[in-house]
Amino acid sequence: MFYSLSAFVSLFAFWLLLSGFFTPFLIAVGAAGSLCVLLFAHRMDVIDHEGHPIHLGWRALFSYWPWLVKEIVLSAWDVSRRIVDPRLPISPTMTRFKPSQNSELGLVIHANSITLTPGTVAVEVAKGEMLVHSLSAEGAAGLAGSEMDRRIAALETPS
């Protein structure tokens, strides 16, 4: 019930944000549309703790996301410098390492965070193993036991 309610609130808030009109009729249509989407999602059995990870909550919003945005900016700067400056090495590297995440959701968050960071792409993800392509050897060396790995493992643990 918690996931259904939070999914409805998220869908309706997103609809209101995109609509921008707040007449009673349009608000009712938005609520009905959100409810229909929620019913379809229930029929498809996709409302669960992995499909709608609301349980990560405020920890993810206020601690992980700002840190990830900072890392994306720093990595984009590094990639840009490597492209412009011919003295900086570009040495494409495939690295296999063992992430410390315990759940599939943690592995997905870790793989997507790696892929969002410029210069790295998660190529293969399995329980207890991840294969990542990196633009440089320095980027590949920092994957195992990284700050990202630690922060996502901390997100997984219930508070």
From TrEMBL:
Superkingdom classification of source: Bacteria
InterPro entries: Cation_antiport_E
Alphabetic keyword roster: Cell membrane, Membrane, Transmembrane, Transmembrane helix
Transmembrane segments: 12-41
Primary subcellular site in the record, as a coarse category: membrane
Name of the molecule in the record: Monovalent cation/H+ antiporter subunit E
Organism for this UniProt entry: Accumulibacter regalis
GO CC annotations on file: plasma membrane
A GO MF term: monoatomic cation transmembrane transporter activity
Topology class, membrane: Multi-pass membrane protein
Family note: Belongs to the CPA3 antiporters (TC 2.A.63) subunit E family.
Location in or out of the cell: Cell membrane
PANTHER family named in the record: NA(+)/H(+) ANTIPORTER SUBUNIT E1 (PTHR34584), NA(+)_H(+) ANTIPORTER SUBUNIT E1 (PTHR34584:SF1)
Pfam families: MNHE
